[in-house]
């Protein structure tokens, strides 16, 4: 069962590995990303931050859809992490039982001109294209919230986009 | 007082640079910091005792990214220093360390904020291919925080000790007794915070084991800690052996590349 899908352009880091995973009590973290699976170094670094008892998996976006749709996934508690709304949209369209999509950190580290971006919250910055994709993501019908860690306010993306 | 202030400034500097410049050797922990403060202020024994008491309270505290719940390093250095300089016991150290550590978070936030401002400067230098400049700026950002902490350490003791001393001496006796009791409860909170971070089905057994050793066999804590070390070495050795064997198996599997994608699924759904 999927506990949460998180959009976070830093993938696994303290907020995800320690806070969310403990809060949700997951036993699998699936990083669905087409770039990181070709980067041994980055995968190694990301794996290091995962606490004991939780197993991280790095797969392509397509592969993650297969894994998550496998009936055997029902018996696991999975946290899915993607680094951009486009990947989230792809997964949300093809996987049925996602209870919540969480927009954590986005748009600060990918080196685009910050001035042209719209700031949605403290940690989320989007450009025109992102905005379009997020609207499509909302249209899928799954709740999308903006909440860096569980103790922060739970803001519905619908209200601020 | 000048010498004491200088010593505390040095410990503050050392503790902070161990994090920003020496890959965090864990010497920022109260256990180490208070001991060094005790050594420099001429009361090593008191320093160790206070360090240990503070360590249990802050055991479960660890900052995640920039979000630091309380700056236990600054709190324990000042708490210990004030208590030793005013010839007070552990309870005073504890009751000063906690509010100070909460206040000192703001210093940490400020240092992180200013370091963040340097990022655009780094970008500029990178655009201009100014490698020397980047190097210097790196050193500046390593030393900037520790120097701020050192100055705070110096001023805190040099200017603050007389008022803290006045405060400590004006605390009524019944209140002091209350603080002593509180100081005995706080370690439970520290342990609880730690358990909250690391609890796992398997490892709660070890806590129970330690508890039984203490309550039935009346073993002192040091004896239990030593047994713990032996147990840890045994478990780590077996774990390593298991891991080695596992790697052997996966290595042979990797030679058979076609089954790779099935392997991932098998691994993913394998309960562990």
Automatic annotation (TrEMBL), chain A:
Does Repeat show up as a keyword for this record?
no
Q: What is this protein called?
A: PTS sorbose transporter subunit IIB
| One Gene Ontology biological process | phosphoenolpyruvate-dependent sugar phosphotransferase system
Where does it reside?
Cytoplasm
Checking InterPro entries in the record gives: PTS_IIB_sorbose-sp (IPR004720), PTS_IIB_sorbose-sp_sf (IPR036667)
Annotated ranges, domain PTS EIIB type-4 = 1-161
Its predominant location is cytoplasm
**Taxonomic placement:** Bacteria, Bacillati, Bacillota, Bacilli, Lactobacillales
Keyword match Transport? yes
Alphabetically ordered keywords of this record: Cytoplasm, Kinase, Phosphotransferase system, Sugar transport, Transferase, Transport
Q: Which GO terms describe its cellular component?
A: cytoplasm
Please list the GO terms describing molecular function. kinase activity; protein-N(PI)-phosphohistidine-sugar phosphotransferase activity
For this protein, the parts annotated as crossing the membrane are none
Question: A Pfam family in this protein?
Answer: PTSIIB_sorb
TrEMBL record, chain B:
Q: Does the keyword Membrane apply?
A: yes
Query: What GO biological process term is on the record, naming one?
Result: phosphoenolpyruvate-dependent sugar phosphotransferase system
Transmembrane portions of the chain: 47-65, 96-118, 139-159, 179-198, 205-236
Task: Report the Pfam families cross-referenced here.
Answer: EII-Sor
CC annotations in GO: plasma membrane
Cellular localisation: Cell membrane
- Chief place of localization: membrane
Q: This protein's superkingdom?
A: Bacteria
Q: Which PROSITE patterns match?
A: PTS_EIIC_TYPE_4
This protein's membrane topology, according to the annotation, is: Multi-pass membrane protein
- Write out the entry's keywords from A to Z: Cell membrane, Membrane, Phosphotransferase system, Sugar transport, Transmembrane, Transmembrane helix, Transport
Q: Which PANTHER family does the entry mention?
A: N-ACETYLGALACTOSAMINE PERMEASE II COMPONENT-RELATED, N-ACETYLGALACTOSAMINE PERMEASE IIC COMPONENT 1
What is the protein name given in its UniProt record? PTS mannose/fructose/sorbose/N-acetylgalactosamine transporter subunit IIC
């Amino acid at each position: 069962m999927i506990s949460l899908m998180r959009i976070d352009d830093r993938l696994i880091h303290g907020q995800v590995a320690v806070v969310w995973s403990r809060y949700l009590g997951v036993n699998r973290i699936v990083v669905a990303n087409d770039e990181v699976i070709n980067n041994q170094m980055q995968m190694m670094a990301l794996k290091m931050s995962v606490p004991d008892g939780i197993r991280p998996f790095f797969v392509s976006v397509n592969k993650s859809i297969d894994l998550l749709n496998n009936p055997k996934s029902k018996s696991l508690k999975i946290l899915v992490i993607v680094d951009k709304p486009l990947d989230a949209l792809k997964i949300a369209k093809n996987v049925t039982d996602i209870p919540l999509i969480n927009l954590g950190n986005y748009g600060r580290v990918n080196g685009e001109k910050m001035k042209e971006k719209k700031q949605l919250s403290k940690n989320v910055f989007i450009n025109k294209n992102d905005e379009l994709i997020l609207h499509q993501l909302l249209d899928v019908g799954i709740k999308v919230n903006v909440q860096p860690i569980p103790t922060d306010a739970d803001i519905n993306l619908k209200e601020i986009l | 007082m000048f010498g004491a202030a200088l010593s505390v400034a040095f410990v503050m500097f050392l503790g902070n640079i161990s994090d920003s410049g020496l890959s965090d050797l864990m010497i920022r922990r109260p256990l180490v910091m208070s001991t060094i403060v005790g050594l420099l202020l001429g009361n090593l024994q008191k320093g160790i005792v206070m360090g240990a008491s503070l360590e249990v309270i802050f055991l479960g505290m660890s900052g995640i990214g920039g979000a630091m719940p309380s700056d236990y390093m600054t709190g324990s250095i000042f708490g210990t220093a004030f208590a030793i300089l005013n010839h007070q016991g552990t309870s005073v150290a504890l009751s000063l360390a906690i509010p100070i550590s909460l206040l000192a978070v703001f210093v940490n936030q400020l240092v992180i904020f200013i370091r963040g401002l340097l990022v655009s400067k780094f970008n500029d230098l990178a655009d201009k291919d100014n490698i020397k400049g980047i190097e210097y700026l790196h050193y500046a950002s390593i030393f900037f925080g520790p120097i701020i902490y050192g100055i705070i350490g110096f001023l805190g003791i040099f200017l603050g000790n007389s008022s803290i001393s006045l405060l400590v001496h004006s605390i009524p006796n019944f209140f002091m007794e209350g603080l002593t009791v509180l100081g005995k409860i706080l370690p439970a909170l520290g342990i609880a915070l730690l358990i909250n971070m690391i609890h796992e089905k398997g490892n709660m057994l070890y806590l129970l084991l330690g508890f039984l050793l203490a309550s039935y066999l009346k073993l002192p804590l040091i004896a239990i800690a030593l047994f713990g070390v032996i147990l840890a070495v045994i478990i780590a050795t077996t774990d390593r052996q298991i891991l080695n064997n596992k790697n052997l198996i996966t290595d042979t599997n990797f030679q058979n590349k076609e089954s790779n994608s099935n392997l991932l699924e098998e691994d993913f759904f394998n309960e562990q």
